[in-house]
Each structure stands twice: as C-alpha cells, then as structure tokens.
C-alpha cells in the first residue's frame, strides 16, 4: 500500500514537473524562435540524457503510459522525433512513397533438402547444423504463432513478476527425495559464481536388467552403480522433456569400459550432444581448458591399484624424512559405494566446475544455446542417497524482468517506414535474442541520426530464435513494436552467424533496395554520416568492399578457437574485413544471395572470413575496389572513428551525446 502511494505521489509530482517543463518549453520556443537550430540541438540532447537516466527506475510505474509521456514531452522534441516534418532531403523529394512491412520474419529461405547428411566434407558440417537449426527454428516459430492466440502477453508476464528469487536454498535429503521428487527448483536459474553442494552416498551396485544399459542378452545381468546429476531448463519448453543443460553421470560400476568413469553431456529437444568422458587420465596439455582448469583430472585406475597404496605410503615417508623431490600423489576415483561424498558444482566464466571432497574433478565448458539463467532445476537420480542439498550465490532478480526493464516502448524509438525507392545504405546489425539492452541503446543513440530518421539509411537488427520461449515471445513483441528487427528463423548458434550475414544481403537486395550494405554487431557504434562519406569517395558504379581489412591472415590451428584443416584446408585466409563493421556494394550482395539460392555459396563459421571469400570470388569476374581503413575500429574505440567496437550500452549513449554536444567523434572509455 505504502509503495503504491509513493508511486502515486511520484507520478503526480512528475506530472507537475512535466507541466512546468511544457510551460518553459513553450516560453523557450516563443523567445528563441526557430532561427537558432544549434541551440535547439544541444537542448535536446540534454533532455534525452536525462530521460535515459530516469527511464530505468520509473519503468515499472510507467509501463502503460508512455504514449502520454511521449506526448507531454513533445514540445521539447524539435529535431529528431518527428521524422516526417524536418529532414530537408525528404521534402525535396515529396513523391517518395512509403512501404509498410508488417512481418518481422526474414524471407531468406534455407533449403535443407539438398544437404548431404552423410558427406564428410569439411564445409558440409555447417550445412548440416544449419539444416537442423532451421528445422528447430520452424518449430519455435510455429509455437510463437500459437502462443499469441492462446494467451495475452501481458497476463502471462504479470504472473511471473510475483515469483521470488532467493539468494540461497537448502533442502534436507528427506525433503529432496520425498516432497521434492528428487528435484531442487532454482526459480531464477543460476548466475556467474552460483554454486550447488550435494552431500550424498552412492548405493551398492545392483543387478541391472535393463537391456539398454547392460547390453546383454536376456537372463544375463551386469552389476551397475551409477547416478545422474542434471541441471535442467524447466521453463524453456512446453510439452516435452526439459533440456539437460548439464548431465553429470559418474559410473562407479558397469560402464562398458569396465572402469569407473564420469560422463558429461547436454541434451536439447531430446537430442544428446557429444559426451565428454573422464576415464581417469588427465586432459592433454594442448586441450582447451575451462577457466584455466582441465576438463578431466587424473585418478588412479585399477590397472595401477597397488601404485596408489604405495605412493600414499611413500608420500608420507618422504614428508617425514624431508626429501625435496616433488612427489605426485594420485587420488582414487572420487566416488565409492556407501562412502559419503561432498560434491560442489560451481558456475564459472567459461563453464561448470565440479569439485568432490574439496578437490577439482571435472570441468565442462558451456555449450551454445543456453544461458546460466536457464538452469532452473537440479535433479539427482540413480543409485545415490542424498543427505542434503544447498544452493547459494543465486541471482536475486528474475531474468524475465530484464527485457521489460531495458525496453522503452515509446513511439519515438520506432523505426521510420521504408521508402519504395533505393536507399543509400542498409546497416544490418547482428544481435542475439536476449540482447534487449544492447538494441535499446542503439535505438537511443546512433539510430537517431537524421539520415536514419529520414529513411535514407535503413538500420535493422538481425536476430535468430532463442532456445527459451519467453525470450522469443518478448523478441516478437519487440519486433512488432519497433519495426526494426528481422527474425531469421533458425535456432541461434554461434557457428551459424554467417547465415545472418546472408540474410542481411537478402534484405538489402530484395527489401530495402540499398545501394550499399553495411554489416555490424550490436556492440558497434556507427557514425552513419562518416561511413557514407567514406563510401562516397569511391566513384559510383564501382563494386566496393570497405572496412578494416586483414591481409594474409592464417587460421589458428590450436587452442580454443582452433579451425581444423577439414573446415579450412588452405594456409591463408583471403583478404577480409573485420566483422564489427564493413560495407559492400549491392552487386556483391546480389551475387551472394543468388549463389546461396543456387546452393553454390560456401559457408564458413567465421562470417567475416566468409565475406572475404565471397568477395574474392566476385572479384574474379568484376573488379572490386578494396578500401582499408583503421577507422573501422576493431579493438575498441579510436578518436575520429567511423565505427567503434566493444561498446557497452552506456558507452553508446555517452558517445552519441558527445557527438551531439561537441560535434566530434570522441570515445567514452568507461565500462
Ligand atoms: C553424400 O556424401 C557421401 C560421402 O561423401 C557420398 O558418398 C554420397 O554420394 C553423397 N550423396 C549425394 C546424394 O551426393
Ligand atoms: C495469473 O495468475 C492468476 C491468479 O493468480 C491466474 O488466475 C491466471 O490464470 C494466471 N495467468 C497465467 C497466464 O498463468
Ligand atoms: C599388486 O601387488 C601385488 C604384490 O605386491 C602383485 O602380486 C600384484 O600383481 C599387483 N597388482 C597389480 C595390478 O599391479
Ligand atoms: C554502371 O555499370 C553498368 C555495367 O557495368 C553500365 O551498364 C552502366 O552504364 C554504368 N552506369 C554509369 C552511370 O556509369
Ligand atoms: C581482384 O582482381 C584483380 C584482377 O581482376 C586482381 O588484380 C586483384 O588482386 C584482386 N584483388 C583481390 C583482393 O583478390
């Protein structure tokens, strides 16, 4: 009650101050008149900065009333918000027609039927996963369409906001196995640094008769002792098994290898991934690590059973005698029948880490498609008795709050309609479903440029579908409201971003009729007029490829981002412009789209290298002018940039304000 009153008071006082502002704005207009646009511009950006600062806090009480708010602010929004009034470019060509495009779905069509699923060719790997991703995407999209009919959006969202996000949860073994149905619900998922501790005791081996596990003929059996700990995404899908974001399966007895092992895996839409097996050997030194930890630690195997007892003894002996020689001590398999264990699972930067009895045992890198906040259930099944389960350092805010908090559903940020004649530039921004804050920051910053507002430059976000339904629901709503999102209907996957690049070309050629096409990321700040100016230096009618171009780069053949010889057989990459900001001419885009439609386009998981490869091929028939400029900054921001990379939402707003207030491209080096 108290809170509601407070809100009421706040909104009353806001109304009053808005009225005062209107009055001041009106006086301002009368006194200063229309002859000093410079002053106007500065005044505006001050207001917009202010609006950004308070917008986040007032959001919850304001959700239903932006229309009103936008109207009240109208007297002091002279330049940018009313696209149809001001821009001189437009009024000089009054005959331009406007097109309305309602459907946010990309018209890029991926024909999966031609993909050879048995081919071992390195380039066909990506086609196989593209085919699968589009199939899943089709289902996801269908679900979304149905969802709209079933429930109103607001209703389904309102209920979620009631759910509490505890910082920690503890359950006794009795509650866990009885009422909890061997499941601990983590209402708001996990976050970086969250950890779950399980105290339990593996049961003695039992006779396994399930032929699927024992792989033996009927009447025969195997002695098996194993258990499964899983992080499940309880909220991501309706009507089917929840995805297993982490499946941790110690097999004390009964694995086909005859040795105790730990298997780890993920399972999405009932499809298991590739298992990571730890069999007692330490991961090789050249294998990728997870936050600096190896994926598998060594433990003593039966094959050297005596060794363990010996080394334990000699280790102690050496300590007592005081030898300096380093002695390695081998630990046994971390679980044994009927013995208590304390297992801790923690969420690191790069993956999950599992410690047993205080010792690191395995690490499992995160797989694409899932965020930590998706892990909303911990289950423990199999041959194990649970004493207690604790989860702590859990996130204290529900992730589904996030989209609403970041989006400002105000008409002023809507994309202006497309014109029915060619535009100078299409800027395609690669984005991910849950990057609501990033997209909003771009809308509030460089997408407010007058060239974008007048539709001479068109900017669109290219987003694929997310594994989580509620994110897709929000995304679709966002797309329908702002009109600046193109949804490429496949299940998002980092190795498939190249498909979004093709979708950008398709949109540029078939929808926006753009003369040139720029690709950037949602952490790229673009100086729209500077890019156009740079491109216009090249005589019209030339094919062009402008960006921060790498010559003679070689694929990394080892380490985390390794590219195999199957994926890229040649020693060098073709010359290619860095991904966060480059421009191609529409004839190149047209070539790319038609090759794609004819199933002739080679796809490589690095989208910028792919573009280099396609432009090189195009150049063999028609000369392309390559323009290299470091001002398409790759590693961050340089003063006098054309585009700047790795910019956070706050930096975007800061850079835009600097550009408006000081008229110069300056960096904002805060985080
Ligand atoms: C698919 O690839 C396999 C292996 O490269 C090849 O033997 C087979 O003929 C291909 N099938 C088609 C339809 O191209
Ligand atoms: C929201 O909650 C109300 C009451 O708590 C319930 O009647 C309604 O069915 C819920 N809506 C949804 C979509 O779950
Ligand atoms: C263990 O040690 C005993 C005696 O020292 C020996 O007979 C046996 O072969 C050893 N076993 C293994 C697996 O090395
Ligand atoms: C542009 O190039 C095309 C073909 O290369 C040519 O037909 C056309 O006349 C050129 N236009 C101009 C304005 O140079
Ligand atoms: C483009 O083609 C021309 C010949 O038509 C060639 O001289 C040039 O090296 C090519 N550029 C690149 C970057 O491949």
TrEMBL record:
Membrane topology: Single-pass type II membrane protein
Cell compartments where the protein resides: Golgi apparatus membrane
Transmembrane segments: 20-40
GO terms, biological process: arabinogalactan protein metabolic process
Keywords: Glycoprotein, Glycosyltransferase, Golgi apparatus, Manganese, Membrane, Signal-anchor, Transferase, Transmembrane, Transmembrane helix
Cofactor(s) named in the record: Mn(2+)
GO MF term list: carbohydrate binding; hydroxyproline O-galactosyltransferase activity
Major place of residence: Golgi
Pathway stated in the Swiss-Prot or TrEMBL entry: Protein modification; protein glycosylation
A GO cellular-component term linked to this record: Golgi membrane
Superkingdom, taxonomy of origin: Eukaryota
Function in brief: Possesses hydroxyproline O-galactosyltransferase activity. Transfers galactose from UDP-galactose to hydroxyproline residues in the arabinogalactan proteins (AGPs). Is specific for AGPs containing non-contiguous peptidyl hydroxyproline residues. Utilizes UDP-galactose solely as sugar donor. The addition of galactose onto the peptidyl hydroxyproline residues in AGP core proteins represents the first committed step in arabinogalactan polysaccharide addition. AGP glycans play essential roles in both vegetative and reproductive plant growth.
PANTHER family xrefs: BETA-1,3-N-ACETYLGLUCOSAMINYLTRANSFERASE, HYDROXYPROLINE O-GALACTOSYLTRANSFERASE GALT5
Family to which the UniProt record says this protein belongs: Belongs to the glycosyltransferase 31 family.
Protein name: Probable beta-1,3-galactosyltransferase 19
UniProt source species: Nicotiana sylvestris
């Amino acid at each position: 009650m108290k809170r509601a009153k407070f809100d009421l008071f706040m909104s009353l006082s806001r109304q009053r101050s808005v009225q005062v502002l209107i009055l001041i704005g009106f006086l301002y207009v009368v006194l200063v008149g229309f002859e000093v646009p410079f002053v106007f511009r500065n005044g505006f950006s001050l207001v917009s900065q202010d609006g950004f600062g308070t917008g986040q806090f007032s959001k919850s009480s304001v959700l239903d009333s932006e229309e009103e708010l936008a109207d009240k602010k109208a007297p002091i929004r002279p330049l940018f918000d009313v696209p149809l009034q001001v821009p001189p470019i437009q009024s000089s060509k009054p005959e331009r027609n406007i097109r309305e495009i309602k459907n946010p779905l990309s018209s890029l069509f991926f024909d999966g039927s031609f993909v050879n699923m048995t081919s071992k060719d390195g380039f066909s790997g990506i086609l196989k996963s593209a085919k699968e991703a589009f199939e899943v995407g089709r289902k996801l999209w269908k679900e979304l369409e149905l969802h709209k009919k079933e429930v109103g959006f607001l209703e389904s969202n309102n209920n979620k906001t009631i759910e509490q996000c505890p910082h920690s949860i503890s359950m006794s073994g009795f509650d866990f196995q009885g009422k909890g149905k061997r499941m601990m619900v983590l209402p708001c998922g996990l976050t970086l640094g969250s950890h779950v501790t399980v105290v339990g005791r593996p049961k003695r081996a039992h006779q396994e008769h399930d032929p699927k596990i024992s792989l033996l003929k009927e009447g025969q059996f195997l002695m098996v002792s194993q258990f499964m700990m899983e992080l499940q995404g309880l909220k991501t899908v309706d009507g089917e098994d929840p995805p297993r974001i982490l499946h941790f399966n110690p097999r004390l007895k009964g694995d086909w290898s005859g040795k105790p092992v730990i298997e780890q895996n993920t399972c999405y839409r009932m499809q298991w991934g590739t298992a990571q097996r730890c069999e007692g050997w330490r991961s090789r030194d050249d294998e990728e690590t997870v936050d600096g930890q190896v994926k598998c630690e060594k433990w003593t195997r039966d094959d050297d059973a005596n060794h363990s007892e010996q080394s334990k003894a000699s280790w102690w002996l050496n300590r007592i005698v005081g030898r300096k020689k380093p002695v390695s001590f081998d630990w046994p398999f971390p679980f044994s029948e009927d013995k208590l264990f304390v297992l801790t699972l923690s969420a690191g930067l790069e993956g999950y880490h599992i410690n047993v009895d205080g010792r690191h045992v395995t690490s499992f890198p995160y797989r694409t498609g899932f965020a930590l906040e998706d892990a909303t259930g911990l289950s423990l099944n199999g041959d194990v008795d649970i004493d207690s389960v604790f989860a702590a350092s859990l996130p204290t805010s529900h992730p589904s709050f996030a989209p609403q908090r970041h989006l400002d559903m105000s008409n002023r940020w809507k994309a202006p309609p497309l014109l029915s004649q060619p535009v100078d530039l299409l800027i395609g921004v690669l984005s991910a479903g849950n990057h609501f804050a990033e997209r909003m920051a771009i809308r509030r910053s460089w997408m407010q440029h007058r060239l974008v507002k007048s539709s001479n430059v068109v900017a669109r976000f290219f987003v694929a579908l997310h594994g989580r339904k509620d994110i897709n629901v929000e995304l679709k709503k966002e797309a329908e409201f702002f009109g600046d999102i193109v949804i490429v209907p496949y299940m998002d996957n980092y190795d498939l971003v190249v498909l979004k690049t093709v979708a950008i070309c398709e949109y540029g050629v078939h929808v926006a009729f753009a003369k040139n096409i720029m690709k950037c990321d949602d952490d790229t700040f673009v100086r729209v007029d500077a890019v156009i100016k740079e491109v216009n230096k090249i005589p019209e009618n030339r094919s062009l490829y402008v960006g921060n171009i790498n010559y003679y780069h070689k694929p990394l053949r080892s380490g985390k981002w390794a590219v195999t010889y199957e994926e890229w057989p040649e020693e060098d990459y073709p010359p290619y412009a860095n991904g966060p900001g480059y421009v191609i001419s529409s004839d190149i885009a047209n070539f790319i789209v038609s090759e794609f439609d004819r199933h002739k386009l080679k796809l490589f998981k690095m989208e910028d290298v792919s573009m280099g490869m396609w432009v090189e091929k195009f150049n063999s028939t028609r000369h392309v002018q390559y323009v290299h400029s470091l001002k398409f900054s790759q590693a961050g921001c340089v003063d006098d940039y054309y585009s700047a990379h790795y910019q956070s939402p706050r930096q975007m707003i800061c850079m835009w304000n600097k550009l408006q207030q000081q008229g110069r491209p300056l960096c904002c080096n805060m985080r």
